[in-house]
Amino acid sequence: MPRIKIGRKSTAIDMTAMCDVAFLLLTFFILTATARQPEPLPVDTPASTVKIKLPDTDIATLTIGQGKVFFGIPGQDIRRSLLEKMSQVYGVQFSDEEKKRFMVMESFGVPFGNLKQIIAMKGEERNKENLQPGIPTDSVGVRPSELHQWIYQARLATKELHNADMRVSIKGDSKEQYPEIKKVINILQDQNVNKFSLITSLRGEDQ
Amino acid sequence: MAELDTSGGGKKGGKVRTKKMSTRVDLTAMVDLAFLLITFFMLTTTLAKPQAMDIAMPDKDKEEQQELTIADTRTINVLLGSGNKLEWYMGSVDKQLTPPEIQGYGKNGIRKALLEKSKQVIASTGDPKKGLIVLIKPSEKSNYRNLVDILDEMKITNIQQYGISEISLPEIELLKRDGLFK
Description:
The complex is a heterodimer. By secondary structure, chain A is of the alpha/beta class.
């Protein structure tokens, strides 16, 4: 009986096209991924089941941890305008060089008097732990607190440059005691910012 | 490979034929690696973005302090104390409708009470819009995680009316009595 011979086919597939697609996607994801900025005040955000993502623009972030408050706002144009406004309020002049350096600072937490020192530092030095003491949240007599001014001027700058209302988000450390948070919320409410976001991380399982 | 042919000529007048090699490379490993990296970048870009929990506080008007009167029977007070514990009761401080109860956060903690009370209140008012009102009162000894947790409970139990309010002195006394103010 003649046996039917099934011709053995090679199992090797041409992977050129697959490889092309894979690398195209890889390039895309690498380029769109935003590098995580080093933070001068690392915080551990509490988890929640909320699934709304945080917007990228026109949102100021108040980082609260270890009893300190740091202020950060995205957008280089806004940061420049913000510094100019603040220098008018407190009567401190900044050179063009200092403004340029401030434009790349994502987040900071120093009293206004020490801002020049921090600007003059290098990036890595700035982010050392316990270097920046936080923005003062206490008002001095009738003068509002510095944090109040930063938020207020940032709102003005955002409105002028982007014609948008600045949103405020609070990024607090899980272990932070409530009075510190309350202080910041009070500052926000004093300038009629009654809506703001709390930044949380995703909770895996429903506990 | 990289050798010079020094033998002085062969048959066909010195023409050396190099053997034709296949140009095909095995791409399997490369594709594996590429897809691994793709997965990594995809997951990190979408998961790294933090979540935003929106909250709205009432208008704070310094001139006119308007007190909103709300029905005691619909109100549940949640006092956030120390040690990740909370205490809750229905009604108001002077007129507590239920004895204060100490509980934890999460599925086996306050959520049961919230769901149960929420059902009861809607049943008694007969109007789904007039549900439970939750007053969240964080004490000085509670931390930020507690606040986020209880706000998260509001989202989970789908309670529409809730607010963060100031804790009063009798309520702090209550927490002290139960050892939640350390």
